[in-house]
Amino acid sequence: MPRPGSAVDVVHSSPIVGHALVDALQAAAVPTGLLLYSWTDLVTRLEHIHGYVVIDAYLDDHVPLSLKVRAISHLSSCPIVLGNNHQQSAADRAYDEGAADWIEPREALEDAVRRIAAVVDGFRRVVRAHPPRAHLTDREIQILCLYASRRSISARTLGRYLGITEQTVHTHLKSGRAKYREAEVPVSNRHTLADALVEDGYLIGADAWQAEHRW
Q1: φ/ψ of residue 200, rounded to 5
Q2: What pLDDT does residue 2 have?
Q3: What are the GO BP annotations of this UniProt entry (predicted)?
Q4: C-alpha distances in Å from residue 55, one per residue of 26, 79, 109, 131, 134
């Protein structure tokens, strides 16, 4: 069950999109709460988030979308993902982690508002579960996705970025890769690791980011 109160928080990297969505929700008599522009903004306000969180699928930071959706769900808020779905596996993973709906911006604004209002009224999109081939921990997901991402971050740089040792990074890389090898999925280099993470929906691939013109 969502947190008490039916207000909708919006987290979007574009202030224009964020304000337009909040204004449209208010015009449709849907209660709104926080308007934020990054995952970090949300994390610093965890005590104040409301029952529903509309989140931009392409927030560019150190936390993969699948973990964002998982975290929002664990906080007893209801995640709603907003973003063009260039990669079905990412949407499947978001639904498995607790997303109530995935709304594409190409829809008219009033249609997006209608679907958000439907979630507030209790709608949940029912989709077939897509269990990953490797069940990774939160830290394994984060480190493997950052390591295999389009930026090709080194283990040393990744450790400094996350405030952990290089050895800890290698430990999580080793354990995560071992889980894929147990599932007979090749992950011998960054490219094959990225392919595996994209197929399981943990990682949004470089092609999807390019299609969004986000980098």
Answers
A1: -85, -5
A2: 55
A3: regulation of DNA-templated transcription
A4: 17, 7, 15, 22, 25
Same domain for 19 and 107, yes or no, is yes
Structural domain containing residue 159: 138-199
Exposure string for 137-147, b = 16+ CB within 10 A, e = fewer: eebbbbbbbbb
Q: Please calculate the CA angle 204-85-177 and round it to the nearest 5 degrees.
A: 25
- Residues ≥6 apart with Cβ < 8 Å to 58: 13, 83, 204, 209, 212, 214
- Asked if residue 36 and residue 111 are part of one domain, the reply reads yes
- Domain end among 62, 86, 120: 120
Are 62 and 146 found together in one domain?
Answer: no
User: Residue 205: is its pLDDT beyond 60?
Assistant: yes
Stated length of the chain:
215
Average pLDDT, the chain: 92
